[in-house]
Automatic annotation (TrEMBL):
<feature type="transmembrane region" description="Helical">
    <location>
        <begin position="66"/>
        <end position="83"/>
    </location>
</feature>
<feature type="transmembrane region" description="Helical">
    <location>
        <begin position="120"/>
        <end position="141"/>
    </location>
</feature>
<feature type="transmembrane region" description="Helical">
    <location>
        <begin position="183"/>
        <end position="204"/>
    </location>
</feature>
<protein>
    <submittedName>
        <fullName>AEC family transporter</fullName>
    </submittedName>
</protein>
<feature type="transmembrane region" description="Helical">
    <location>
        <begin position="299"/>
        <end position="320"/>
    </location>
</feature>
<feature type="transmembrane region" description="Helical">
    <location>
        <begin position="240"/>
        <end position="262"/>
    </location>
</feature>
<dbReference type="GO" id="GO:0055085">
    <property type="term" value="P:transmembrane transport"/>
</dbReference>
<dbReference type="Pfam" id="PF03547">
    <property type="entry name" value="Mem_trans"/>
</dbReference>
<keyword id="KW-0813">Transport</keyword>
<feature type="transmembrane region" description="Helical">
    <location>
        <begin position="210"/>
        <end position="228"/>
    </location>
</feature>
<dbReference type="GO" id="GO:0005886">
    <property type="term" value="C:plasma membrane"/>
</dbReference>
<keyword id="KW-0812">Transmembrane</keyword>
<keyword id="KW-0472">Membrane</keyword>
<dbReference type="InterPro" id="IPR004776">
    <property type="entry name" value="Mem_transp_PIN-like"/>
</dbReference>
<keyword id="KW-1133">Transmembrane helix</keyword>
<feature type="transmembrane region" description="Helical">
    <location>
        <begin position="6"/>
        <end position="24"/>
    </location>
</feature>
<feature type="transmembrane region" description="Helical">
    <location>
        <begin position="90"/>
        <end position="114"/>
    </location>
</feature>
């Protein structure tokens, strides 16, 4: 196996494994996961995102690799709906097939492997990732609920007391929720600050740097803790199939489209690695909200995260661990 691949992935594997062992040993209990997640997302993530993007000028951003990434998302999302039918379950499965864990694992992994240059490329994707995917998924799910109720399947909503919104109101609500989030806000704020040409004062920059440096290790340890407390149960077979689509088919599709569109080098590598990341936790929140495939999605997130150790290795052998 390529030695550079092993060297690149080994810190990630060890950090996740240490979190898994800490969870299994009971050192970090399930009740603490929510607080640790809040620490990572509400404090460490904004510090890292703002500090990274505060040194980036808009003309440095390249959205062509992002276009290749989302073209693959559109293909997979649409194909899932065509195969599964237009309903809530299909919409949630489509989101699971395309929504990567770009923050908790992606930012930590890309930062460790490719440094600031790779991080800027990833954050260009992250800046629109949740906005486009979660907005689209919300709209599709609301329309699916309306369709099921119209066809007389309201009783099949599992007791969900839900009144579909007007499509325009749904889109506006989803856009607002995606923007008022600890991920896009510091990215936008950092970009705006960078355009002023100012530098962050040292007395502020140093604490931000320390918080940003803490993000990667703590986020990966938290992934391991969550894996230790996530049941898979009888859903492991369909979960493995869904994880295979997300972890393997998605990056292969992105790789092919990048080649087709003439995207290469570090931007292509980062997009393909981002596509090979496991299913993001937001998918589980959607399955909870719409009360559909909750156990399957829970199992799929766990299986996808565990499978990522293998799929990331294969992807890095395909595109190379460095540009």
């Amino acid at each position: 196996m390529n030695q550079l691949v092993v060297v690149s992935l080994l810190p990630v594997v060890l950090l996740i494994a240490s979190g898994f062992m800490a969870g299994r040993a009971g050192w970090i209990r399930p009740v603490a996961i929510k607080d640790l997640s809040s620490l990572v997302f509400l404090l460490l993530t904004p510090a890292l995102l703002f500090r990274t993007m505060s040194q980036v000028h808009v003309e440095q951003l390249d959205f062509k690799p992002v276009a290749a990434y989302f073209l693959a998302v559109i293909i997979l999302f649409g194909a899932t709906l065509l195969l599964q039918g237009f309903n809530r379950r299909a919409a949630v499965l489509a989101l699971a097939s395309t929504f990567s864990n770009t923050v908790m694992i992606g930012i930590a992994l890309i930062g460790l492997m490719y440094g600031p240059a790779g991080l800027v490329t990833l954050l260009t994707l992250v800046s629109v990732h949740s906005l486009l995917l979660l907005t689209s998924a919300t709209l599709v799910l609301e329309l699916a609920v309306a369709r099921e109720q119209k066809q007389g399947f309201a009783d099949g909503l599992g007791g969900l007391a839900h009144t579909p919104h007007h499509p325009l109101a749904t889109v506006l609500m989803a856009v607002r929720n995606a923007l008022l989030h600890p991920v896009p806000l510091p990215i936008i704020a950092g970009l705006l600050f960078a355009q002023t040409g100012w530098a962050i004062p040292a007395v502020i920059d140093k604490p931000l740097e320390l918080l940003a440096n803490a993000f990667g290790p703590l986020a990966l340890v938290l992934v391991g803790v969550m894996l230790a407390h996530t049941p898979v149960g009888r859903h492991w077979r369909p979960a493995l199939a869904l994880a295979g689509v997300k972890n393997l088919l998605h990056p292969l599709l992105v790789f092919g489209l990048c080649r087709l569109l003439g995207v290469g080098g570090l931007p292509m590598t980062v997009m393909v690695v981002a596509a090979s990341l496991p299913i993001g936790a937001n998918v589980f929140l959607f399955s909870q909200r719409y009360q559909v495939a909750e156990e399957l999605i829970t199992a799929s997130v766990a299986v996808s995260t565990a499978l990522a150790l293998l799929s990331l290795t294969l992807v890095l052998l395909l595109v190379g661990p460095a540009a």
